[in-house]
């Protein structure tokens, strides 16, 4: 095993000291990671909820660490939980790796090292690592790939091991990962005797690309390319495996009816024109395609990524950056089908969309990728976690009525308060690793230009053409649109600094050392290309005016409705501020919106108010379902909008993003 000497920018050269995001990093370190550790060890006194009405969902306990102890021979017993539950532990480990970079914690590292020791014991001699199949059905290894999630779990461990090695230089973690990858390489491929197929849930492709980048072993990149290009070429693969399988029980109940599009296996990847199937799987596939296209200079694969990107963001994405329009299959449906109260918008799906956007930015400097990354991050992603770090949303709705969530089986997945944990607990640890890895999304470097993708207070050090450059951002974003950059190269150096002008910022101003810059954005960035002398100051001022958005007329759910945005944040109405029956509120065209910052609300948050009209329900409607010739009456009502990510942190009640307009 060899390891490249280059240290990735996101781990070692960016320090976040931002008021908004430092709070999240501390919540993850102090609350979320310890809490999740207790859950994984079945020590937390909590209620584990089913994420929808489905009695087959295991929700008695986590049992995730216990499964590894049984697989390692340290305890006796049976596997409990979903077949993919190993990945909960792996994502927890990856979050620990990133968190240790921000704040070194010896006790936390000790726990992580213990987990790695346990994984080494659970790993089989040939490198295979999966608790369900090692404990229950070793004879079915790699024989039910449509539902087994074996390569999915393996991918999550490999990603965790790469991150943990980069932070701690723990060679045992990396050796386990390489041994596991070698086991997969020995089992899959075009050669005779190998499996010419792929996992039902994409993830291994992402992980192998990262393992290649760390180790320089080109065979890992080639194996990732194999899985990507093999997908969808043989539409009989999953069905043949099902027929040949000798197992007496389902690995996962209810999967046999899923169409191939659910797995993105209905066509070869280069032929897929639209975002189809399970939303998380789709964006994990796309993120892997974008990374492999970048690493292998594969133009055809990059072109395929562009098609799928446009399908998502132009026709199948919610204004919050959420994706997945239906609970059935947690999936995309059709263009412009974006219902607000039955959709899925899984937290993991928006996290995957961020992965996709970031990997596209590696290929091409286009601000639309960073815009979408920011949209998903500030809205759906952080909405997925309560402000206490111990309650989570699996589904992120844009409209909620508590009675419907209780009484309508088709809306049982739409929670009105964040549960403590889920039977399918993919989202909480995914959130933890996303938030703690925020460093890597701030900047990207391409063709001697440093691109600023996110605005948050940080101190960074990058190298361009052999010159070390200290970059410092200072801002009160997202509440304020003013950002100050301090640029300090070691010596005078020529390079570009690209400042992103978000698509929501209708106006902007730039001042370099006190002089205004009149450059126009190109692909969403203003590029300042010059010889930098040192101790230079760049001031950026973005447009933080309140904006009123409409949806495409083909989005039937939002006809004659508007959504409110300020900066990167989407806003919503909540019952605790505005009373019930939010659907009766109308926003007049001429009424001005006002903004103020509330220090004591949600730890400090900007709220928006407007004088609206609310329909009066007249007495004539009592005991009458329909009527003719009954005039509508309205009364004035001041309504309050809060940032979408803050909803459901106070009381159970109605919530609405899209509001009727006059």
From TrEMBL:
Domain Non-reducing end beta-L-arabinofuranosidase-like GH127 C-terminal: 547-659
Superkingdom: Bacteria
SUPFAM superfamilies: Six-hairpin glycosidases (SSF48208)
Domain Non-reducing end beta-L-arabinofuranosidase-like GH127 catalytic: 13-439
Alphabetical GO biological process terms: carbohydrate metabolic process
Classification via InterPro entries: 6-hairpin_glycosidase_sf (IPR008928), Beta-AFase-like (IPR049174), Beta-AFase-like_GH127_C (IPR049049), Beta-AFase-like_GH127_cat (IPR012878), Beta-AFase-like_GH127_middle (IPR049046)
Domain called Non-reducing end beta-L-arabinofuranosidase-like GH127 middle: residue spans: 450-544
Protein name from the UniProt record: Glycoside hydrolase family 127 protein
């Amino acid at each position: 095993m060899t390891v490249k000497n280059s240290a990735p920018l996101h781990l070692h050269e960016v320090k976040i000291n931002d008021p908004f995001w430092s709070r999240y990093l501390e919540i993850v370190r102090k609350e979320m990671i310890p809490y999740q550790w207790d859950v994984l060890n079945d020590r937390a006194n909590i209620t584990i909820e089913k994420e929808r009405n489905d009695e087959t969902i295991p929700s008695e306990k986590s049992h995730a660490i216990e499964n590894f102890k049984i697989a390692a021979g340290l305890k006796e017993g049976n596997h409990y939980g979903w077949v993919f539950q190993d990945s909960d532990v792996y994502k927890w480990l990856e979050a620990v790796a990133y968190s240790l970079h921000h704040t070194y914690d010896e006790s936390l590292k000790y726990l992580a090292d213990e987990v790695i020791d346990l994984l080494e014991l659970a790993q089989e001699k040939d490198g295979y690592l999966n608790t369900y199949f090692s404990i229950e059905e070793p004879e079915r290894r790699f024989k039910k790939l449509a539902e087994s999630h074996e390569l999915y779990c393996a991918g999550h461990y490999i990603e965790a091991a790469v991150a943990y090695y980069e932070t701690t230089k723990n060679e045992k973690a990396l050796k386990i990962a390489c041994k596991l990858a070698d086991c997969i390489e020995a089992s899959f491929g075009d050669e005779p005797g190998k499996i010419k197929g792929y996992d039902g849930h994409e993830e291994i492709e992402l992980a192998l690309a990262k393992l290649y980048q760390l180790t320089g072993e080109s065979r890992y990149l080639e194996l990732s390319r194999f899985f990507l290009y093999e997908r969808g070429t043989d539409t009989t693969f999953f069905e043949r495996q099902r027929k040949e399988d000798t197992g007496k029980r389902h690995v996962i109940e209810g999967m046999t009816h899923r169409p191939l599009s659910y797995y993105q296996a209905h066509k070869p990847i280069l032929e897929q024109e639209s975002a189809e199937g399970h939303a998380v799987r789709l964006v994990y596939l796309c993120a892997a395609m974008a990374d492999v296209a970048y690493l292998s200079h594969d133009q055809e694969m990059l072109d395929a990524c562009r098609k799928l990107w446009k399908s998502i963001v132009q026709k199948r994405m919610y204004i919050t950056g959420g994706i997945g329009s239906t609970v059935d299959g947690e999936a995309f449906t059709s263009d412009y089908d974006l219902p607000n109260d039955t959709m899925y918008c899984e937290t993991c799906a928006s996290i995957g969309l961020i992965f996709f956007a970031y990997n596209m930015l590696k290929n091409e400097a286009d601000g639309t990728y960073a815009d979408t990354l920011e949209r998903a991050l500030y809205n759906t992603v952080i909405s997925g976690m309560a402000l206490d770090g111990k309650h989570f949303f699996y589904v992120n709705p844009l409209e909620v009525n508590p009675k419907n969530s209780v009484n309508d089986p088709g809306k049982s997945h739409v929670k009105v308060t964040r549960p403590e944990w889920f039977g399918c607990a993919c989202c909480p640890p995914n959130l933890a690793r996303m938030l703690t890895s925020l460093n890597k999304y701030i900047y990207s470097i391409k063709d001697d230009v440093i691109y600023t993708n996110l605005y948050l207070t940080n101190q960074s050090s990058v190298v361009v053409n052999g010159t070390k450059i200290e970059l410092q951002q200072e801002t009160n974003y997202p509440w304020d649109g003013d950002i100050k950059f301090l640029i300090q190269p070691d010596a005078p150096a020529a390079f570009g600094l690209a400042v992103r002008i978000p698509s929501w910022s209708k106006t902007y101003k730039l001042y370099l050392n006190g002089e205004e810059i009149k450059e126009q954005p190109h692909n969403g960035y203003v590029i300042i290309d010059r010889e930098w002398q040192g101790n230079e100051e760049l001031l950026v001022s973005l447009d933080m005016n309140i904006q009123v958005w409409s949806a495409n007329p083909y989005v039937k759910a939002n006809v004659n409705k508007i959504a409110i945005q300020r900066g990167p944040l989407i806003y919503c109405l909540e019952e605790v501020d505005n009373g019930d029956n939010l659907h009766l509120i109308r926003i007049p065209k001429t009424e001005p919106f006002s903004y103020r910052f509330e220090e004591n609300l949600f730890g400090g948050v900007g709220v928006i108010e407007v004088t609206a009209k609310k329909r009066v329900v007249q007495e004539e409607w009592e005991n009458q379902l329909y009527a003719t010739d009954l005039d509508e009456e309205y009364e004035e009502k001041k309504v309050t909008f809060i940032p979408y990510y803050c909803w459901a942190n106070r009381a159970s009640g109605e919530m609405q993003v899209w509001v009727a307009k006059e």
